[in-house]
Amino acid sequence: MAGLNDSNLQIAKTIKLYINGAFPRTESGRSFPLHKFNSKKIYANLCRASRKDLRNAVAAAKSAQSGWCNRSAYNRAQILYRMAEMTEGKRNEFVETFVQTLGYSPERANLEVDRAIDALVYYAGFADKYQQLIGAVNPVSGPHHNFTTPEPVGVVGLLCREEFDFSHMIAQIAAITCPGNSLVILLAEEGAAVLAPLAEVFATSDLPDGVINLLSGFTSELYEHMAGHMELDSICFDGKNEKIRARIKEEAIHNLKRAIVKPQPDFTLEHILAFVEYKTVWHPIGF
Amino acid sequence: MAQIKNTNNVKINSDFKFEYAPAPEATDMVKIKKQNKLFINGKWVSGKNNQFFDSINPATGEKLAEITEASPDDVDRAVKAARKAYTGQWSQFSGKERSRYLFRIARIIQERSRELAVLETMDNGKPIKESRDFDVPLVAAHFFYYAGWADKLDYLFNGKSVRSLGVAGQIIPWNFPLLMASWKIAPALAAGNCVVLKPAETTSLSALLLAEIIEESGLPPGVVNIITGAGATGAALVNHPDVNKIAFTGSTEVGKIIARSTVASQKKLTLELGGKSAHIVYEDAAIEQAVEAVVNGIYFNQGHVCCAGSRLLVEESIAKVFVHKLKRRMRSLRVGDPMDKNTDIGAINSKNELDKIKKLIAQAQIEGNEYFEPELTSIPEKGYYIKPCFFNNVASSANICRREVFGPVLAIQTFRTPAEAISKANDTPYGLAAGIWSEKGAKIHKTAQALKAGVIWANTYNKFDPASPFGGYNESGWGREGGRHGLLPYVEVK
Hints:
The complex is a heterodimer of chains A (287) and B (494).
Chain A lengths: L30 E5 L6 E6 L3 H20 L2 H17 L1 H12 L3 H21 L3 H5 L1 E2 L6 E9 L2 E5 L6 H12 L4 E6 L7 H9 L8 E5 L2 H10 L5 E4 L4 H11 L5 E3 L8 H5 L2 E9 L3
Parallel strand pairs in A: 5-6, 5-8, 6-7, 8-9
Antiparallel strand pairs in A: 1-2, 3-4, 4-10
Helix pairs in contact in A: 2-4, 3-4, 4-6, 8-9
Chain B lengths: L2 E3 L5 E3 L21 E2 L1 E3 L2 E3 L6 E6 L4 E7 L3 H19 L4 H17 L1 H12 L3 H20 L14 E3 L2 E5 L5 H14 L3 E5 L6 H13 L6 E3 L4 H9 L5 E5 L2 H10 L6 E5 L5 E4 L5 H13 L11 E5 H16 L19 H16 L3 E3 L16 E4 L6 H4 L6 E7 L2 H8 L7 E5 L3 H10 L4 E4 L18 E2 L12 E3 L1
Parallel strand pairs in B: 3-7, 9-10, 9-12, 10-11, 12-13, 14-15, 14-19, 15-18, 17-18, 19-20
Antiparallel strand pairs in B: 1-2, 4-5, 6-7, 8-22, 13-21, 16-17
Helix pairs in contact in B: 1-7, 2-4, 2-6, 3-4, 3-6, 4-5, 9-10
């Protein structure tokens, strides 16, 4: 159980960042307090990730990406399914976090976890199928074999919505990683306590180190740097703030990274396709 | 007999020349108007400001015609016409009806193909054999391909229906003027959108002839509007509030400007931009074929090709012999009058482009790169021409290896292992295309998988087809054109 209970006798868990499969504190030594819902009591002091932490996370994601996309699609599916299993195993911890920090009823908290698990299972099943749905063998005029396959866009930065939406965030994570992208996620302040159980799910699901990296911190401090980072191939933010969306689109232009600012529907093929590129290969046919 | 020594100590006889009798294509079937108007709402209208600019024949440097410079008011008229046609007619039409118009346009393009090819060469400077055998047939094929899609959109996206976007603003470059117009217009119309298209300012004429063809096809007024002008006209189109989608083909630099000006809007944007595509030749390649493909890859269309194979990565063990064969082949390339059916390399599209290419070559020479151009190739005195050339043993950090020249200039590097080839090929902010030469299938597939590029030509290069998606990774742009994937940027999935 995270946080301090009323007796102050329980051991509180320090919530740290999750970068390259490890749990470092922020290099900046900074933190911000997360309070219990409707209370002045501190639930936990979270790391306030710095630009340097962000760069470290991108470097980890970058070096993990090719290994992840070269795993067989079947293996990626297995790992996503394993994440669903581990989420189920940590259900109580997720529920407790939502109840304590967000004021959810246990029923609502459980529903969120149900839906998150559904999303992981849904996209686990897509990892070895979406290619057949959007790939093509193209009937070109001439003696050539010509085929188009979708590939992961590469390293994706995900800025979570301002209003915490656990199941949507998990759907985003699953949709982005299932084709073989790696991810750097900046959690919004609200609900950032979920970092603790979530990072443990990722750390215990046979997911290669660095494929998913989790940061807690201030969106306002980091989003422009994330959107402008030259090693990110795509940036996603589907929050409501129009100004942030426009700034992200603008910063993304430095390296023409794909800026996905339109909310993608959960449980769809389209959600995956927002994070792929199409490669077309030609080869002559003949003797 | 005088002899010249080149860098490989190959002796060349100075009277070794390819003498061909001139074989110029006739130009009499092309009627070019002295002053050209805008095609808005199915009518030929004058620009509001009555301003014109010249279109030059780059083969001679002589003026071909005057083209209207469309003002923001003209752009507004065109967008309004497109909107009216969209809401009033085109979006109400059945797929079958839309399809019929596209088929008609395709047929007329075929019927008037010679006229289109000759005009294209006159205005652009590309060899007539390319405009005749490559550009125009592909233009017709593009309209045919997407004509057949118009009534089959229910099958476009898995399990979902799609709807058109509205008005598409399309801006195209000067390197394949008519072909780019077809890549833009055909999928947009098939998906049910209306179009305002702006050709590049140095090559407006074939787009205006296409407008005549569209008129002849009976397409309802306003479905396609063609407005001419330069950057300011394009900017007015991009910034017009009633445009739903922008499609741009051109330089990465301008692509970024366009992207910047749409950040605050909901406009959908696709970009087909520059490249510095690598052509990898492994030691087990079919060498003669690979030489031919490398030549075609970089010198086709004077190197004015976004996916030109402008970097050659050749395995060290065969580098010497490969470069030797490449030089031999380059010496037989004929540079000159694009209207001549024997010409391999025509005119550079404009003086501006020629100066840019010359500057980059001079800079690369100053930086100490090993330069080669065919010693005896001559170029016409009048018009904008340049000899094909390459720089050998170039460092990955050299400008000539990183910047897009958009001319007949090749940068050559060597590698020792497939991993080195892949890492060098991917060492660019672009990601449009790549070539791979090897007789080993597994090696080709492994390399193709590892390359960050949207189009991979294995044991071939510069092949295009309306059914084949085209477009790049990274700074080479957003989205695909061609094939089923080329329709997706013109629809919304419901």
